[in-house]
Amino acid sequence: MISQNTIDIVKSTAQELRAHGEEITNIFYGELFKNHPELKNMFNMTHQATGHQPKVLAMTILKYAEHIDQLEVLSGTVETIVQKHSSLHVTPEMYPIVGEHLLHAIKVVLGDAATEEILGAWADAYQVLAKIFIGKEEDVYQNNEQQPGGYRGFAKYEVVDKIKESETITSIYFSPINNRAVPHHLPGQYVAISLEIPGEDHLHTRNYSLSDISNHWCPVKNK
């Protein structure tokens, strides 16, 4: 549970977050990738370069600050993030790393305005939100494991076909290397594909929409 004191303090920082949110998230990502380059594969670096991801994170943090006493308002946002995190196999061990760098970025940007009281309240608020994500993501992982052919994390597939559907869409067909069953999918679902690119120092992971599926192959659409 979040104490009323924490709620009051976090809500009082909303104005500062609205004014400096993107500055905070830009510093956050910069420090995170510098100190933990192994986490780069969790992010689309093109979205980092364009500023899209820092902007999205800044808006999410602001929304949390404004509605920390009405978490039901954030249910849709939380569910979207949970699905994205679980597709990337985010683990509980990553949350303390993120929290540490987020608090550091808040301190750097807000300076003396980021008092120990404010940083402590945000640390408490972050822990509460992290526990929500960890619990919901674990539910997703367990559900995935319990399906026929299901597993936790990533599995190895090979490309068996590639069809250019149009000028902007290509379907890529995958088959499990061990010929195991392909887990059931839902309409609109996407999968994360992780691969090595020669010359790069980290894996690249991207999400792609599933367009069809069977027990032997798994096509995705690359737009």
Automatic annotation (TrEMBL):
It holds the Pfam family Globin. Residues 1-138 form the Globin domain. Keywords: Heme, Iron, Metal-binding, Oxygen transport, Transport. InterPro entries: Globin (IPR000971), Globin-like_sf (IPR009050), Globin/Proto (IPR012292), Riboflavin_synthase-like_b-brl (IPR017938). It comes from the Bacteria. Transmembrane segments: none annotated. Belongs to the globin family. PANTHER family: FLAVOHEMOPROTEIN. This is Globin domain-containing protein.
